[in-house]
Amino acid sequence: MTETKASIADKRDALSAALGDDLVLTEADDMARYCTDWHGDVTSGAVAVIRPRSTADVQAAIRICRTLGLSIVPQGGNTGLVLGGTPDEPESQIVLSLERMSRIRNIDSDDFSAVVEAGCILAQLKDAIAEKGMFFPLALGAQGSCHIGGNVSTNAGGVNVLRYGMTRELVLGLEVVLPDGSVFDGLSTLRKDNRGVDLKQLFIGAEGTLGIITAVSVKLAPYPDHAATALLALNSLKDAITLYRRARRDCCDLMSAFEFLPPLAFTLAKEAIPDLPIPLRADYPAYVLIEISGSGLVDIDDLMQRFLEGVMESGLVVDGTIASSSSQARNLWLIREGMNEGQAKRGTHMRTDISVSLSQLASFVADAEAAVKQALPDCISVSYGHVGDGNVHLNVMPPNGATPEERHDRIHKAKTVVNAVVDRYQGSISAEHGIGRLKRKDFEERLSDTKRRLLIAIKRAIDPDLLFNTHCQINLGAVIDEPD
Amino acid sequence: MTETKASIADKRDALSAALGDDLVLTEADDMARYCTDWHGDVTSGAVAVIRPRSTADVQAAIRICRTLGLSIVPQGGNTGLVLGGTPDEPESQIVLSLERMSRIRNIDSDDFSAVVEAGCILAQLKDAIAEKGMFFPLALGAQGSCHIGGNVSTNAGGVNVLRYGMTRELVLGLEVVLPDGSVFDGLSTLRKDNRGVDLKQLFIGAEGTLGIITAVSVKLAPYPDHAATALLALNSLKDAITLYRRARRDCCDLMSAFEFLPPLAFTLAKEAIPDLPIPLRADYPAYVLIEISGSGLVDIDDLMQRFLEGVMESGLVVDGTIASSSSQARNLWLIREGMNEGQAKRGTHMRTDISVSLSQLASFVADAEAAVKQALPDCISVSYGHVGDGNVHLNVMPPNGATPEERHDRIHKAKTVVNAVVDRYQGSISAEHGIGRLKRKDFEERLSDTKRRLLIAIKRAIDPDLLFNTHCQINLGAVIDEPD
Fold first, then answer.
1. Is B235:B317 a contact under the CB 8 Å cutoff?
2. Residue A374, class by beta-carbon neighbours within 10 Å (0-12 exposed, 13-18 middle, 19+ buried)?
3. What is the pLDDT of residues B249-308, one digit of tens each?
4. Residues of B numbered 242-271 whose beta carbons fall under 8 angstroms of chain A's beta carbons: which are they?
5. B336 touches chain A (CB under 8 A)
6. Is the ipTM, as predicted for this complex, more than 0.90?
7. What digits encode the pLDDT tens for the residues B95-130?
8. Which of B193, B241, B386, B441 is best to mutate for the A interface (most A CBs within 10 A)?
9. Which structural domains are found in chain B, ordered by start?
């Protein structure tokens, strides 16, 4: 024990000597926020937190960590939900925070592109782009804190995926520092470039296991200055899916969000935001929050009006309200966001991030909720999500007075129950949040031999010494230590 | 020589014995069309052409080829433009044609997805999908012959990229047979699936160097039953780019094509299709073919009308014609297609497939055409392409009476001249056609050390024995034979 401590102190000294005190944090208090996850559920420690100011600093950090045998956990805004950016071995890992590399290098509205450093906060990037009349479509709850580099590393999703795609589809180019310390300079803004294997794809969604993303070039769209938002009540989730299909056709490519909510959303939102106005009766079986948006000559309000007339006339939508101002639209979105806060206020609960095929979404939710009800009759399921992507967050809340142990037990059981239904539907246990350390075991259990072999072969090819984000995604350490 | 011939005959016998005569062609006449490229420019031979009927057949073919030390050149519809799907070593390669694996496994309009075998002809897939009221957006000149598997392997582009993206963005899942004979089963139709590194991305655009794609699942959109097409005349290519920016904003995400053409397009199209109606004066400096399309409630004709009123009033567009029927629209597109045929009729010429950033497209074309004019005053440049993607096909035609040797000499010089301008603009020498064998040297010369090392590491990791598509993209043989 004394030996390890001494050795950690030596390593800290060596890091400071190599990189300068300005880049290196080693005090427990200073490191705490980098070593605790977004939900505050899991706290660990690290040998140090390194905060580079430049790509060259990242290269220097990798070199000294390699020499000292330290593994590197890259971290963006630390808003991940699967423990991919926080350390789990305090004596052998450092956290590399990109927060100081936050410069927007260029926004070119003539070229529909922007180039930005990894540590730029998403909302700041979106705002700077909007000031130039342009739009960066990535939109998620954490956008006031998350970094664009983390978004790319985790291939973040969010509410606009159905129109604009996941982060992957918004990336034009990347600058990445590799485990050997060299820089992959792929920071092009070309929209079409078909020169061989597209290497940057490897780093998108790899959660820092193959490289450290230091800068990103992204696609922009014209700013959609017209938006129409409506909250609609329906008789079932099945009807919500029918409505989605109709909306896709009727509104063409102009639908930018289509979220479904259960009636419980209103109760939960009110618990978080007591004075939030609820503009509809709260006892319909299902609700949809829909947004249509666009720029230029298309009359978005008229399109929403005619769409709603049609679907109300056909009986598919039984009640609804259109926001008549942007503040009303904001309040409708606050129901969606407040629902999440309300769940958090009720205490630790099981969160999932599931996708199934769109045509099976309604029956999946019915089956999974029934399975939870049978196995855990005192728990409450709440399912909501991005219908058009087949993405549902089916969360399970233990009863209000449950002790931490009881909660832990319920959450553990609920996960097993729900994952079994996901497997039956050939769904994904991670539609948008990634794998990180939290879902690694569940991920590994579901990997085919071929996929596992490929993942290991690629990791070995790029990071043979397992320097980057060990224990994230798959536990390569254990595998690679085996004889061939 | 006798020894080699004997050995080839032995290998042919071994292939037939292992796979059955039905799968194996070995007669030169039978193999000719598989060993000659789309343009008929380059003819080679092969030990055999293998035509599997199933994924299991592909696995069996790989096993026997491995035993015999034969390298495998996968081939789709053989419409590639860069010699990626035709052999170049008659005594050590076999062609693996996917043409018999052409079944559409499923079209699910409720799920906005389809699953199809690699050898299905793109136009047949598009038609079958259209019959179900759905739309597969990939659209290119070769669609009557090319295969979906080849489209994915080459990450094909085409005229609808600006709205729907390259093939990569249309792929939901892949089934791939790997060099070790195992099957990567990633044929999911999930729209969101963020479980770790997205392995399928490796095979998209790899031109068969890492795996043989045997089936594909793709994203569908609602069929755009309304389309408006117009041909517009402008004072310059620069104005065409300004027009594109305005169209992106005014028509929001409903613009599906925006092609620019030079005045020479009409002459060339007439040479190929003498009775083609030309609805505009043919002496303006630049032309644009624009298509707006959509389904449902958006009034596309009205949108086109109002857009054109605005841009003609502002003087940006100086003349124009809107197709008033689908046959008129077809005729406008025939100008675009006839222009290509007309170039082919004038004899062998230099074809390019360049991208630069959108904001630099006009000055790039001016600079590159001027450089060609200076170096090769007797040649004619013709530049056209997909403006919104920054993609220009700048082709150079030798004078009409040139001998084959003179043509070859002009083409060689023109390539050097144009590529130098591409490099100055940090553009791509392959925006959509890929690298294949034709552009390998030009590609390799422009690779950074880091990218080269990564490409080699990945190839080594997945295909250590260099079984798949040797000499395509990079000449790994030469590199891997070197001592480390």
1. no
2. exposed
3. 999 899 999 999 999 999 999 999 999 999 999 999 999 999 999 999 999 999 999 999
4. 245, 248-254
5. no
6. yes
7. 999 999 999 999 999 999 999 999 999 999 999 999
8. B193
9. 2-97 (3.30.43.10), 104-222 (3.30.465.10), 226-424 (3.30.70.2190), 447-481 (no CATH)
